[in-house]
Recover the amino acids of this structure.
């Protein structure tokens, strides 16, 4: 269940950051890049900044639904 709740670097977090940064018209590449096991969220963000030339877009922990399992 780890990937359906917010954790930095989780699949859900990666999809959010890639889709928002690349635009939803590039959803296919966003999903593919989200499946990569990034060494850290910082390295993922550096990759996004290098491609887009802009700050990473997407939510943060406050924007995600919290669940108590």
């Amino acid at each position: 269940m780890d990937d359906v709740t917010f954790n930095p670097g989780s699949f859900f977090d990666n999809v959010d950051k890639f889709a928002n940064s690349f635009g939803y018209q590039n959803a296919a590449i966003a999903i593919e890049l989200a499946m990569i096991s990034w060494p850290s969220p910082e390295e993922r963000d550096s990759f996004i900044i290098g491609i887009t030339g802009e700050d990473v877009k997407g939510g943060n922990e406050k924007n995600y639904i919290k669940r108590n399992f």
User: Anything to note?
Assistant: DSSP finds three helices and no strands in the chain.
